């Protein structure tokens, strides 16, 4: 018997969607992009430049960081 958890599949799909968004934004940003678990199974991507300093409540929920890829060093 095979048990398929749709909740786990939805969690993974939400994470991968937020990760893809963060990776796309990182290409055009000087700032790191963070994937944050907003609620159980719900993920969002935020730009570090949107905040002065990330509050500890956000830092504790960071599950992945994509470094900003723009550079002024030419």
**Unreliable stretches, pLDDT < 50, 5 or more residues?**
none
- Multimeric organization: single chain
- Strand order in space, largest sheet: 2-1-3
Total beta strands: 3
Beta-strand percent range: 15-25%
Largest sheet: 3 strands, antiparallel
Radius of gyration: 15 Å
The number of distinct structural domains comes to 1
Task: Summarize model confidence as the mean pLDDT.
Answer: 85
Number of helical segments with 4 or more residues: 2
Helix content: 25-40%
Shape: flat
Q: Topology as H/E string?
A: HEEHE
- Give the structural class: alpha+beta
The N- and C-terminal alpha carbons lie at a distance of 59 Å
Fold and architecture overview:
The chain is an alpha+beta fold and 74 residues long. A three-stranded antiparallel β-sheet has the order 2-1-3, with helices on one face. A hairpin with a 2-residue loop joins strand 1 and strand 2. It is flat. 15% of the residues are buried. The mean pLDDT is 85.
Structure summarized in a few sentences:
The protein is an alpha+beta fold and 74 residues long. It has 2 helices and 3 strands.
List keywords for this structure.
alpha+beta; 74 residues; 2 helices
Question: What's the topology here?
Answer:
Layout: H1 6-26, E1 33-39, E2 42-47, H2 56-59, E3 62-66
Antiparallel strand pairs: 1-2, 1-3
